[in-house]
Amino acid sequence: MRPDELIGRMLREEDTVILFDRRNDVEQQARLIGYEALDCAITSSPIGNANVTVALLRPMSENAQRCATTATSLGSRSGRPSFVKLLDRFYIPKAGDPVISALFFQLIAERYEELAAIDVNRQTAEILLRAALKESPSCDGPRKVLDFGCGTGCAVGALMALGHDGRNVELIGTDLCESMLSIAKGRGEAVVPLTEWRAIPGGDFVAAISCFVLHYGVPADDLACIAQQLKPGGIFSANLFKGDEAKLAQLTSTLSMADLDLIWNEQLITTPDTYNRHLLFKKRNGREVS
Question: Where is the Methyltransferase domain (predicted)?
Answer without folding.
Answer: 145-234
